[in-house]
Design goal:
Length: about 300
Amino acid sequence: MTASGVERVFLLPGEYHVSRTPCQMATLLGSCVAVCLRHETKPYAAMNHYLLSSNPGGTESEKGRFGDSSIENIVWLMKKLDEKAKMTAKIYGGGAVVGHLGTTTDIGGKNIEIARSLLRKKGIPITEEDVGGTRGRRIYFDTAANKVVVKPIQKTEEAEKLMEKRKDIASRKTRVLVVDDSPLVRKILVKAVGETKDMEVCGEAGDAFEARDKILDLDPDVISLDIIMPRLDGLKFLKSLSQHYPKPVVICSTIAKDQSQVSAKAKEYGAVDVIDKDKLELYKGPDIIQQVYIPKIRRAAGKVVRKLMFAS
């Protein structure tokens, strides 16, 4: 509540709110969309914040995450307040998201279209839109005045980039590239990733040159990288990658001991994390791999990394 007694609500992704009294609602949008509903004559209002356009499984517990079920729900809740309610709607968000290899996934466009389509079918007029583009938005909905203030978020803001990346990964499986010169080690790590519900192996490579081609072809979210490899060692490859095509990398090597110079050099060259492969006890079963390796891969995938420059 504010000092004046007006309720204030900040919506996180997947949330919605309905109020029968004057309320100030706010949220932060990238590719997500918010629909603001307002009763034509009464102070009843609602707003949602959904991540994806449609609910593929019809999951009740996650209906707030999807445009179709979220919009249906807030309209239904408004009708519960007034069965004969006449409403107007405003739509915000749906900014462009850059996907793999610079292609547009159009998550935002699909989110916008589902809102327009459902509201049109329900006969709810859309009185205002601020959608699309390439920037995020902060929106503030004053339900008493039926007024929405939109403040653009600069595309270069670190928080916006991180939010968009995490939303993108949350909508699908994390894609992992496993790079190790040992076929047996690769098999063990690939199996561990494959048995994790929120991850998948998009490829594997036995040396840095093969890894380079796989990175360009597959655009993984995160790379598990060995150091001791033929033709080009992992540290030199990591340094080059950080300079020209940065990706979140977790070094997994027998020579990357805790507090060692190799471990320090890996982090200097841009590694998000470093794992001493010997500590994983790869040949004794999956328990330690699941406890140590998988969480580090998951955390690294959510990081935003930038190009690095090194003295020649």
